[in-house]
Amino acid sequence: MRIGFIGTGEIAGYMVRGLAGRGHQIRVSARNAQKAAALAKEVAGVEVAENAEIVARSDVVFLCLMAGVARDVLPTLPFRADQAVVSVMTDMPLAALHELCAPAVDIACTIPLSAIATGGGSMLPVYPQSAALEALFGQTDTLVPVASEAALNAHFGGSALSAPLIALMQTGAAWLARQTGDKQAAESYVAGVFAGFLRQMQETGADFETLLQGLATEGGLNASLKAHMAQAGAHDALTDGLDALKLRLGL
């Protein structure tokens, strides 16, 4: 398949790496020349091209721009009615995409994160459903069709949990490393603990409450630290932070 990326930032790079080695013709935007050149050098078969050429020669176009830039760039590009467009942009309503990318009509939005680069396990909320996205990532990652644009925007908010939760894991691993003197082993241990919980959920169907019940021994270390975090306002702060995103997400 001929695949084009308009915008060559971090997310575009992750997606290109996830598609590598599958026989696709991939073109990336020359707009960010340094990143585009590095990506083409790293991934075999990737070409760097101008935006107009990318759109003209692609069956599927991924939009990986900031919304403000997209409003200026997209109307100048030669979209076609027979090509699929997939946006990974925040702050860009679907109705606006249809105006900016006309005459293209097969337009969907999704939320890729860095795990998509490994070719397995990334969650991809999508609205509306996209046959192109399914064809490209359905065998390696998990597409999550949602019922509305509002639901997709809520998932954008949910994806923002990634950085704060990883930061908490990093803080915990740093504490462990101070006790043991081995940062690499500490991070590996903390990551492995949570990878185990995720496997448990996938293999048994357990939910978060089930996991918490298994860690709720009265007076235990987990119960004690969980209570401390709650009393310190960690859960309220998280909810407040997510609520603060609602206006931007149109929720």
From TrEMBL:
Highest taxon in the source lineage: Bacteria
Molecular function terms from GO: pyrroline-5-carboxylate reductase activity
Gene Ontology biological process terms in this record: L-proline biosynthetic process
Parts forming coiled coils: none
Domain Pyrroline-5-carboxylate reductase catalytic N-terminal: 2-89
Pfam families reported in the protein's UniProt record: F420_oxidored
Residues in the signal sequence: none
Matches recorded under InterPro entries: NAD(P)-bd_dom_sf (IPR036291), P5C_Rdtase_cat_N (IPR028939)
Family: Belongs to the pyrroline-5-carboxylate reductase family.
Entry protein name: NAD(P)-binding domain-containing protein
Lineage: Bacteria, Pseudomonadati, Pseudomonadota, Alphaproteobacteria, Rhodobacterales
